[in-house]
TrEMBL record:
The keyword Oxidoreductase does not apply. Keywords: Signal. Residues 1-22 form the signal peptide. PROSITE patterns: THIOREDOXIN_2 (PS51352). Pfam families: Thioredoxin. This is Thioredoxin. CDD domains: TRX_family. Residues 9-136 form the Thioredoxin domain.
Length: 136
């Protein structure tokens, strides 16, 4: 095997574990509408870096994604920085009351939301709702 092939295969193998747990998309204005118009099921996570409830939700979401790769493969996860976009048109139109709010959207419909809940069963229920809409 030549050096170029070896380096290419090694780089690909090293990147593979990270591809399976891709980071959520960072919100920018227009992104949610763009993904909804593309037919995606969108899971919004309104969060702040300093929020302990948000961190707990993030740990649960990551664990659930690790247990079931179908979540990552079929749902568009978007993180909305509360400090930057808490008073944005998106947050206002969805009547987001605070950080640590999780919302699932499909088309023009809100399919579910959780506010400040960190239980694995509640978050799994919301993610299952999103998965059902995405593959159904």
């Amino acid at each position: 095997m030549d050096r170029r092939t070896f380096l290419t295969l090694t780089a690909g193998a090293c990147a593979l574990p990270f591809a399976a747990t891709a980071a959520p998309m960072a919100y920018t204005p227009g992104l949610v509408q763009e993904r909804l118009q593309a037919g995606d099921t969108v899971f919004l996570d309104f969060k702040a870096d300093w929020c302990s409830t948000c961190a707990a939700q993030e740990r649960v979401i990551k664990a659930l994604k690790d247990q079931n790769p179908d979540y990552e493969a079929n749902i568009t996860f978007i993180d909305v920085d509360w400090d930057a976009f808490g008073d944005s048109e998106l947050a206002t139109s969805l009547r987001i009351p605070r950080r640590s709010t999780l919302v699932v959207l499909k088309g023009e419909q809100e399919l579910g939301r959780l506010v400040a809940q960190t239980s694995q069963s509640a978050i799994k229920g919301l993610m299952d709702t999103a998965l059902g809409a995405a593959v159904g």
